[in-house]
Amino acid sequence: MPSSRIEVIDLRDRVRGERIALAPRLSTLDERRILLFDNGKVGDGSTGKYSRIFQVLEDHVARVHATAVASTLRHDLLQCKPEVVLSLVEEVADAGFDAVICALLDQGVTQPTMTFATELERRGIPTSLVCQGAGGRLATATAEHMAPGIPVTLLDMARDANPDAVARATEAAATAILEGLLARGTSSTGRDTAATASATKSAIPLLAIEGPDASHAYTQCLADAGLGDGLPFFAPTPARVEAMLAASGIAADAPLWPVIAPRAAPLTAHEVAALAVAAGCEPQWFGVVAAAYRAMAAPAFRLAQAAITTHPGGTLVLVSGPEAARLGIASGQGSLGPGFRANATIGRAVALAYSFFLGARVGGSDLSVQASPAKFSYCYAENLAKSPWPGLNADWFDAGTSCVTVLKCEGPRTFVNDTSTTPEGILDKAAGNIMGMGGNLAAMIRAQILVTLNPGHAAIVAASGWTKTDVQRYLFERARNERTALLGLEGLIAHPKWFAGLARFPVVERVEDFLVVVAGEPGPHSSVALPWGMSRGITERI
Predict the structure, then answer these.
(1) Which CATH architecture describes the domain 33-179?
(2) d(CA 65, CA 86)
(3) pTM above 0.90, yes or no
(4) 247 three-class SS
């Protein structure tokens, strides 16, 4: 009996990083200018204990390489736009430094620091990376796509180590850190030409699948490559991908993302369409998927950091406007849960972007400590038919336009109220869910909070003449934490200066940072979604 054989789109290696050759290592550090670059962690006011890292390294250089000159430069890379990181590279290169030591790579700041270090290496400046905890794993995983062999030294200390423990760990690792700059340290020889060719190749290769069940074989093939979310995939044949693109009218080579590290090439609609097919999407839903991808590429979404954060949140895809009903995207009873193929597969096609297109995989550069079900699929629509207010589409465009809002956030956190007949009674429950010392909101003010009222709760609030703006203003005043309870929390520096005279700190900086929508059916339960806190919600027209 002849075996069946079909060709499918091969999505196994879509990160396509340009793997550069490392700069030539130095023969000696004597009479060399060494820059100790603080990426924002070493001299951070909330983690000043890490300043001992550079104190120890300066002493070590003076002791072992007496004629070397060590200088320090600090810049908070976590807050930088990519173009600012590149301008810093030029600044360091123009200053004539012979070598650079970067510290401290611990969590989210690792990704922009890797970009900084890679660009220094590209310009012929040897660089050595000092890491702690998960930062070492992330730096190593990212280096595979960007700069294989770049020296990564992990300090043997806990994240809550005291200054003396930090100093001891640095002293023990000082020789290895400096050797990363020398010819006897780790280095690579020559450019990875195969990887570079892959980075510039526009077409997605085909993969031959043998056997009676192509989807099962394709799922196993991806699993063997460390890809997937644990659920089966559909085999993305070229015909299915072409149908997906044709339904949306989007050109195959249309860029949906610009160059975002560790990728060295823009992300095309063809690649995303192939993943959407594999995730189970029907062709008519691809316009929503593409709009979500375009929104994720906005600088304020901070996609590179969102991909590798320790935070458990997923990427919410919230659809608003007449297209939601036409496409069958659920907005009514149970719409935030299972049972709706459009919701499930659109959300899944977006969630899979991080691993397939940015290389963020569990055990590698995805640092999520526990993760959550929100990282599988997270998509629903506003129930505009039962909302007393205009939707987000009207807020941003007009009632006839449909749009997608993406927000990096936790799953819905329900609150129960089946007795209150006033706006205050209902919204006080929402505020109670929002406040708290355990989440990112206590220390990270650059957040937006999604409040999803069911139509019954929304009707009670609107019956008193309250608009969405009134809801936002009430929550802004009500959802506040006592200033005294926040003092000393790591990250408090993130609060704006105008908070200084307040007895109670708001959980967001602006009234409009509460996003108020209506979904579900009337009943006792509504919900809030607490944010990652390092990005903004982005809205894109479908």
Answers:
(1) 3-Layer(aba) Sandwich (3.40)
(2) 30
(3) no
(4) helix
